[in-house]
Amino acid sequence: MVRVYNFSAGPAMLPLEVLERAKDELLDWAGTGMSVMEHSHRGKAYVERAAAVEASLREVMGVPDNYKCLFLQGGAYGEFAALPLNLSAAGQSIDFINTGDWSTKAIAEAKKYAVPNVIASTKEGGFTDVPDADSFTVNPDSAYLHYTPNETIRGVEFDYIPDSKGLPLIADFSSTILSRPINVTDFDVIFAGAQKNMGPSGLVTVIVKDDLLGKARVECPSVWDYTQQAAADSMLNTPNTFGWYLLGLVLDWVKDNGGLEGMGQRNKAKADVLYDYIDGSGYWTNPVAKRARSWMNIPFLQPNAELDKQFVSEAAKAGLTNLAGHRSVGGMRASIYNAVPLEGVQALVEFMKEFAQKNG
Ligand code: PMP
């Protein structure tokens, strides 16, 4: 078996231990003589496991009792619609901080249901920084403030939590959840597509504070209605049973590897290795302001962009895959989520050194 280092932005690399455990359990899960995928979501075995996975998420992230954890479908993109439908009234404004492509998409989606109010944007600078913490004013009449702690495409990450001045604070944690400790009570809704740090695609986790429930509009699809889904333990309809199960295996792996403290140390070390090399290389550059550099998604450019394709294909031959930048921005990008080991980042740096020597 040859496993590559997969630098994909998502669906992304999963821990080998998780995949091996899933493989071991695939045909006969928990001694039931069938795969977890073949179990009814209403059956005792599955319901118990689903509850255990939720308990595990609560333990790992420190989710207090006055928050619900929902396991839904429709991805984080679906949440861009579900949020206004659950939390705003028609015609009400919603504050946004726009730091990149995913914030932009969330704003466009919210516009179908409410009135987005962009209180800060780094678009003019090409989305290479976060706004200063004191540079924006929230509208007290808005339903909530939405922001993206980590913008996956351009690798821009907040180094502070925006002060929402009492508005509910909604955070799109898709590409940074489980990457380090956070204080859940700093947020009112945390949501994340699973396919980066949590498991396979097709599952989206929404952690929502109780006092935001009960506000969904009548036209909100029931499967996205947080109140209905909370009352049904996320099983109003058939959930992504396999994704939910696999999240449990990933959480066990996180616990075995030092919890979120462990993840944070590991991820900081990995990011330091790559940024230090890029900055000192005299060949590669990262366009993001130092304070806003992501630990998870690291874009890098070379002097002659015509060599990008060659780099990406030679790297793939060397077992370093999915290094092309997002199709909208070009260049290269290494996504180094939890499951990418330090050795993978070191191997990438070695490869980048050789490439720079040959082409510099
Ligand atoms: N938000 C962010 C920050 C993302 O990175 C992504 C996906 N890459 C999305 C939202 C959309 O997620 P999904 O594909 O799960 O709908």
Automatic annotation (TrEMBL):
Molecular functions per Gene Ontology: O-phospho-L-serine:2-oxoglutarate aminotransferase activity; pyridoxal phosphate binding
Cofactor(s) essential for the protein: pyridoxal 5'-phosphate
Positions bound to L-glutamate: R42
EC class name: transferase
Alphabetical list of Pfam families matching this protein: Aminotran_5 (PF00266)
EC number(s) reported in the record: 2.6.1.52
Cofactor binding remark: Binds 1 pyridoxal phosphate per subunit.
Any one GO biological process: L-serine biosynthetic process
Keywords: Amino-acid biosynthesis, Aminotransferase, Cytoplasm, Pyridoxal phosphate, Pyridoxine biosynthesis, Serine biosynthesis, Transferase
Subcellular compartments: Cytoplasm
Modified residues (N6-(pyridoxal phosphate)lysine): K196
Cross-referenced InterPro entries: Aminotrans_V_dom, Pser_aminoTfrase, PyrdxlP-dep_Trfase, PyrdxlP-dep_Trfase_major, PyrdxlP-dep_Trfase_small
Pathway membership, UniProt: Amino-acid biosynthesis; L-serine biosynthesis; L-serine from 3-phospho-D-glycerate: step 2/3; Cofactor biosynthesis; pyridoxine 5'-phosphate biosynthesis; pyridoxine 5'-phosphate from D-erythrose 4-phosphate: step 3/5
Record: residues binding pyridoxal 5'-phosphate: W102, T152, D172, Q195, N237, T238
GO cellular component, one term: cytoplasm
Catalytic activity reported: 4-(phosphooxy)-L-threonine + 2-oxoglutarate = (R)-3-hydroxy-2-oxo-4-phosphooxybutanoate + L-glutamate; O-phospho-L-serine + 2-oxoglutarate = 3-phosphooxypyruvate + L-glutamate
Start and end residues of each Aminotransferase class V domain: 4-348
Subunit field text: Homodimer.
Function: Catalyzes the reversible conversion of 3-phosphohydroxypyruvate to phosphoserine and of 3-hydroxy-2-oxo-4-phosphonooxybutanoate to phosphohydroxythreonine.
Family listed: Belongs to the class-V pyridoxal-phosphate-dependent aminotransferase family. SerC subfamily.
The protein's name: Phosphoserine aminotransferase
